[in-house]
Amino acid sequence: MMHSLSTLTLLSAAGLATAASVFSLDNDAAIRNSAGQLAWDMLQYYHGNESGGTPGILPGPPPAGDYYWWEGGAMWGTLIDYWAWTGDSSYNDEIIQAMQFQVGEGQDYMPRNVTASLGNDDQAFWGMAAMSAAENKFPDPPSDRPGWLGLAQAVFNTQASPDRHDETCGGGLRWQIPFSNNGYGYKNSIANGCFFNMGARLFRYTDNETYSNWAEKTWDWVEKIGLIDAKTYAIYDGGNVEHDCKDINKVQYSYNNAIFAQGAAFMYNHTEDQKWKDRLDKLITYGLETFFPKDIATEISCEPGNGCKTDMFTYKGFVHRWYAQITQLAPFTAERILPVLKTSAQAAVSQCTGGDTGRACGLHWGDHKYDGKTGAGQEMSALAAVQSLLIGHAKPPTTSKTGGTSKGNPGGGSGDGKIEKEAKPVTTGDKVGASIVTILLLGLACGMFGWMSIELEGSS
Ligand SMILES: *[C@@H]1O[C@H](CO)[C@@H](O)[C@H](O)[C@H]1NC(C)=O
Ligand SMILES: *[C@@H]1O[C@H](CO)[C@@H](O)[C@H](O)[C@H]1NC(C)=O
Ligand SMILES: *[C@@H]1O[C@H](CO)[C@@H](O)[C@H](O)[C@H]1NC(C)=O
Ligand SMILES: *[C@@H]1O[C@H](CO)[C@@H](O)[C@H](O)[C@H]1NC(C)=O
Predict the structure, then answer these.
(1) Reduced to 3 states, what is the DSSP secondary structure of residue 248?
(2) What's the CA-to-centroid distance between 270 and ligand 3, angstroms?
(3) For 18, 53, 103, 394, which has the most beta carbons within 10 A of its beta carbon?
(4) Burial of 94 by CB count in 10 Å (0-12 exposed, 13-18 middle, 19+ buried)?
(5) Which residues span the membrane (predicted)?
(6) Which pLDDT tens digit goes with each residue over 21-53?
(7) Nearest ligand 3 atom, CA 209
(8) pLDDT tens per residue, range 328-349
């Protein structure tokens, strides 16, 4: 094997470093314990459930704190998979609280607080977390609250609406939603990848071809303008509408590969079409070669020069989760993917030896040595890598025909896809919704006074 020499070197390096790591991946019980510790460590960055905090979000946005709004959605999505794959329901109430608090006035994950700076990808990370909740049969919210499937449909509908799909560059979604934002003139892979991914998953769950038509159309457009290189299957970042998207920015992020690969796996699983099998196969072949040097997940565009920014600390975690799920939907990939995810997860925990706790994680997994910088994103990625090792025992994502019962709302989000200039007055419905969320929260071990004040702030 081509890799044998480097694998040997790696093993000895890992051996030295793991002496100091508290995380063991030796058996399923050890993996569950390690994941539990990492979930807890990640949530130390979250203060939204404390008195005066805003449920759902990590401290931010910059400069008020490190994290943008979308990262909260990514964190709940990670924890929904955590629950599904480990069986640990400790955080479920907190997840439901967070995911419901942020649904926004139109119940489509465009809460008024963030609409001024909202990207299609930001909104979709919450929508994809809701989709994971539906697919995994995560506990439903109370019946008068929007269901997980309905929330995912609402996000999808806002993005399928004509005002998000103009004719510049021959189609596709822009990165940002408000025209005044930096990035409104940019059409990129992550925005379109999220939309493709949600379309593929809604199609498999509901069997409604409106979704697969959009997924097909999005794939074709992304390939046509060269964001996916039709030969190598490299996925580039984006292009500017003022140049008809011919000025493709060729930087490659690992999550762009994984979001399309996971979507392709859903399309393949539901259609059994050879076309989707080939696309999936090429994406994972390219992804494993490019983003897993020495079989260890690496954010190649920024990690070597220490240039990764806060958002980028999370990408490898998505790759682990989505690649793990691909092995359920397209079992022919398991033989190639699973051993790599294992080596990569071992590397991830080998460097979780930092901070005051002696177990904080950095980003440079391949160094087997803590890199001196930790945060919610680094913890989230290490958690994702560890929990993904349990995929072999996990139930595959359900559909409405195989036990999925999440409440849908096929028309959700209609008419609310536009960013309004003026905030709507809070309706009685919003207030009732907010107090139901509050009541739900009383089940958590926390003071009523704290929650009441959150509700009052939320409705003001
Ligand atoms: C908030 O969540 C964290 C992490 O799950 C937990 O440790 C803490 O006890 C929670 N706080 C409250 C007030 O519920
Ligand atoms: C689709 O997913 C199911 C559930 O994991 C799996 O049993 C089935 O083999 C998959 N279909 C294909 C065509 O791989
Ligand atoms: C299929 O989805 C579209 C888009 O959300 C919706 O308008 C339509 O009513 C759905 N069809 C069925 C049969 O549910
Ligand atoms: C919007 O921001 C205000 C002020 O920080 C906060 O009280 C409220 O809870 C936020 N609403 C949401 C949905 O995050």
Answers:
(1) coil
(2) 18
(3) 103
(4) buried
(5) 432-454
(6) 999 999 999 999 999 999 999 999 999 999 999
(7) 1
(8) 999 999 999 999 999 999 999 9
